[in-house]
Amino acid sequence: MSLSPKPCASSEAPPIRLNGLDLVADLSGALFVPALETLIVADLHLEKGSAYAARGVHLPPYDTRATLGLLREVMARYRPRTLVSLGDSFHDGRARERLHDTDIASIRALSELCDMVWITGNHDREPPEDLGGQVAGELRLGDIVLRHEPSTGLALETEISGHLHPVAAVVRRGRRVRRRCFASDGARLVLPAFGAYTGGLDVRSESFAEVFPSGRFTVWMLGRDAVYALPSRALRYSG
Amino acid sequence: MAWSAKTQRMTASEGQTGVTARAGADLLPRRFADWFAGRGWQPRRHQLDLLEHGLAGRSALLIAPTGGGKTLAGFLASLVELGERAGAARTSSTLHTLYISPLKALAVDIARNLEAPVAEMGLDIRIETRTGDTPQGKRRRQRLDPPDILITTPEQLALMIAYPDAERFFSGLRCVVLDELHALVASKRGALLSLGLARLARIAPQARRTGLSATVADPDALRAWLVPQPVDAPPHHAALVEGDPGPPPDISILESVERVPWSGHSARYAIGEIYEAIRARRMVLIFVNTRSQAELVFQELWHVNEDTLPIALHHGSLDVSQRRRVEQAMSEGTLRAVVCTSTLDLGIDWGDVDLVVNVGAPKGASRLMQRIGRANHRLNEPSHALLVPSNRFEVLECQAAEDAAAEGEQDTEPPVAGKLDVLAQHVLGVACAGPFDADALYREIRSAAAYMTLARADFDAVVDFVATGGYALRSYERFARLRRTPDGLWRLAHPRIAQQYRLNVGTIVEADMLKVRLARQRGRGARRMVGPGGRVLGEIEEYFIEQLAPGDTFLFAGHVLRFERLEESEALVTRTSAQEPRIPAYMGGKFPLSTYLAARVRAMLDDPERWRALPAQVRDWLSIQRFKSRVPKRTEMLVETFPRAKRHYLVCYPFEGRLAHQTLGMLLTRRMERLGARPLGFVANEYALAVWGTRDLSLMVESGHLSLPELFEEDMLGDDLDAWLAESSLMKRTFRSCAVIAGLIERRFPGKEKSGRQVTFSSDLIYDVLRQHEPDHVLLRAAWDDAAAGLLDIRRLSDMLARIRGHIVHRRLETVSPLAVPVMLEIGREPVYGEADEALLQEAADELVAEAMRLV
């Protein structure tokens, strides 16, 4: 059992190139666009824990805190001018009521550090309007469109989205390693889910086949210490 | 038929000693005495002793080797009481005796066997069973109209006490019989059962307890386990009855003419000799440590089965109907051999087994003795056992086990105690029965020996957990599962919660398993189509299937199967004609060698005089070790360093079992990394740990750069351990088990994942968040408590570090030593067991870079 990976900071991981733009895949699951000083995160699913608690499953009520804490840390590293939350920022329509005061304050504070945009998602069609920032269905950054749910079929424009919670798996030495990942075929880029309690969907499943119609794409898998780039043909379907 | 086989072991000359027997015999009513006499039997002394205690209303523990009329001993007092009822009492509809057996198959068998003497004596006694297979309608009827004797399992008892009418149901209870008690108390099942018994003690205080157990290291612990304990007073004990131990078993270790392998767990080399043993006997049971070993040995035996003897396979992953067929054939005597795992240990009557073969080291003296004791033996004839070591070190283990057996030494673990996740499940069950008072419940729980030392703060934390999850951040009061009533009692917030509870009762959390189903094939070649529709062969671990690509072949249920694909959480397979599977399965054992046997092995090594009892191949091995390096003394830990093929190795010999060594490996390499030793990897076996790297470790040790005492300092179990536990997949698995048992997340039912109502949730996500934000949460404490033993064996590691302090001996060598060879051979052969994910990702990424950089 070998255990000393060569040190490889996430900034050394090969950047994602999308329509001529270099993008940084951060170990946290956030995406940074240096040229536009914009940080993008997707699928925060805030208050997912309390949503389960309301149904009698008392998950630890710290997911919002953990997610916001991580976001703050990433913000501190990149100091972006704009922060985009790419949909499903809240787990459901009643999340706002369940938010703890401390977390409400945190979110408002974030929205004061930079321009904040809440993209609407399928879980939060109407994100709260009193937490700062602006709400939008889509956002354009130059030639790139940002939306929650990826389009399918032939790509007509360069697109960054979330919604699918991509995970990828490799099998080596009789063992499967499954991790969240970024996935892109050069035209579309799907972000991993950033939220502390979010699950994942395998990139080799049906839903992704429509998003990457050529069948060939690259994933950037989030390890513990580094981000690892792999072609889709190296992956094993993990169900 | 099973009765007669067992009772044949009772004869006139045995057990008739002294006053007790005669007094006991006086207590036996005429009808019973006639029945015994009519069969030509004499009741045994321990049966009469137990009868006397029972009729006097005293709780008692019977310790006797398996067989020998133990079950009848357990029932006798109840049968006498029920049989002698007169008039109206005969038609009363209350439960008299509850009999708890660990297995539902066993429960059904016991019931059937009990019917025979009851019918023959013309007793008016109703006997029924209640297991997981009992339909709801029958269960409801039993609650309203209980039988006299109910034969059931621990999980069913937990369910039965969780009803409001439990008090009424158990009000007439006079006796609880607990069978295979030594096995029950050794797991969390026993902890849950002890809480259930504490409840019974409150609602039916007149019910005596009768425990039936195999020999254990500490009988007093079981005697206390059986009966309610007073708070803050000396402990109470059930009376003790000891059965005749019978003649000592005849154990031998295979002295093979073949070469014993250096390492690995395959007994291939000895297959011929095992086959000869089968030919020479009536029926042989061949025990192995794992399912995959069972498959392999079964295959190998059939390759040499020239006489076409009926040889069967039995292990826990096989389909239930398949297992029942084998068990049936065993009791009918139509099999010559069965290759099996420990799932057959607690089974029904084995029939006419006259030899037990144990492949691989027995891992524990008691485990071995219990297994051997079950082989059928005529009176004054010892049970026969043959130990077949699968590698040279196992020869030492087998020798240690044989010596221990000869001395009658036991190494059973103490009963499982204080488990907080189990307590949480029980508290919810109590709430399902009705509102409870916290103070009263706390006292009730402490009356269980397993929870005698439970602190009030821990109890409150558990109640808080059941109510709202027990978090410091009080967000969930409005979603509480338990609420306070105006008079301060705790009650269920909603009846729906009781329904949910009933679906999740139990303490066994299986590794995720997938069904293996034979596919139907149509067409050929390129047009070949494969679809579901064949029968289910059994279940296999998800982690094993995860690594398979379509077309991979593996061994299961006696065939080489081809993996086709996953279909709705079932693995579809087809049979192939291939002789060898491409994908090997994990072969190492489930249990590490016991501390007790390990100490014996160390003592054996320390005394060259005792090497003479060992086979020449093993003797030579140790002699050359003594010459080239050193054979470790009993109290010391040897550390060898040597170079080999551009790498440098550090091999240490703690003798603490594979699991503790894996944990040590993780911690040691972290530490070595900090000390600049740059380790690259490690591998462990039952007695050794090998670490390798590119820096000259011999030089580092001798120059003082790498201090061995510092390396093995006990503080390794502080920050280093903590950091590793954050990511350890073994720890996460341990936590998951606690979360399911405690009722935080629901069990996964194979095949039912897709149903919308399933609220399954990845426990790994919870683990990470909880560690970060509330590290002393009750569930984390429960998981940590499990990690002390279990998959991480931390307590054992801690004891070892204390033991070797000041006793580390270093040898600098120029080449690998004989003692190191077995563990060195594991390099590359053992599957990566858990912690190298990051390295695997790196490897995957690097390989593609290399591929890309190649010019061809």
Detailed description of the structure:
Chain A is an alpha/beta fold. Helix content of chain A is 19%, strand content 30%. Chain A has five helices and 16 strands. Chain A has helices at residues 48-53, 63-78, 95-98, 101-113, 206-211, and strands at residues 16-18, 21-25, 31-33, 38-41, 82-85, 115-119, 134-136, 138-141, 144-147, 158-161, 166-172, 175-184, 188-190, 201-202, 218-222, 227-231. In chain A, the strands form two sheets. In chain A, strands 8, 9, 10, 11, 12, 13, 14, 15 and 16 form a nine-stranded mixed beta sheet that branches. In chain A, helix 2 (63-78) runs parallel beside helix 4. Chain A is globular, with a radius of gyration of 17 Å. The two termini of chain A are 26 Å apart. Chain B is of the alpha/beta class. In chain B, 41% of the residues lie in helices and 15% in strands. A seven-stranded parallel beta sheet of chain B has the order 3-4-2-5-6-1-7, sandwiched between helices. Chain B has a six-stranded parallel beta sheet with strand order 8-13-12-9-11-10, with helices on both faces. Chain B has a five-stranded mixed beta sheet with strand order 19-16-22-21-20. The longest helix of chain B has 17 residues, at 104-120. In chain B, 48% of the residues are buried. At the A-B interface, helix 1, helix 2, strand 11, strand 12 and strand 16 of A face helix 21, helix 25, strand 25, helix 30 and helix 34 of B.
Structural category of chain A is: alpha/beta
Low-confidence stretches of chain B: 1-21, 754-759
Distance between the termini of chain B: 73 Å
Largest sheet: number of strands, sense, barrel closure of chain A: 9 strands, mixed
Could you report the average pLDDT of chain A, rounded to the nearest whole number? Answer: 91
Biggest protein-protein contact in the assembly: A-B, 49 and 58 residues
> What can be said about the biggest beta sheet of chain B?
7 strands, parallel
- How much β-strand is present in the residues of chain B? 15-25%
- Give the structural class of chain B: alpha/beta
Quaternary status: heterodimer
